[in-house]
Specification:
By secondary structure, this protein is mainly alpha-helical.
């Protein structure tokens, strides 16, 4: 009794089916979650770092607080002048 051997089937030009890593139904959800987690990490790292001291200010710079104090003192001087007249 001779057994018949079937010749191997050659698959020329055909690629085996690849199973996707993530189910296509959930691919968008997974990408969104990954993006949000990375953005949250960057947000936390950015806001917890040591903030360096501010450098020198430009010449003749007056901050808003100084300007307000100066304007208030000028206004009070004007009021005092009007009261005296």
């Amino acid at each position: 009794m001779a057994t018949k051997i079937k010749p191997a089937v050659r698959k020329t030009g055909k690629k085996p089916d690849k199973k996707p890593l993530i189910d296509p139904r959930y691919k968008s959800l997974v990408n969104t979650v990954i993006f949000l987690v990375v953005a949250l990490i960057f947000f936390i790292v950015n806001n917890t770092r040591y903030e360096p001291e501010s450098g020198p200010l430009p010449p003749l710079y007056k901050s808003k607080v100084e300007q307000k104090v100066q304007n208030d003192s000028i206004d009070s001087v004007k009021v005092n002048q009007q009261v005296n007249n």
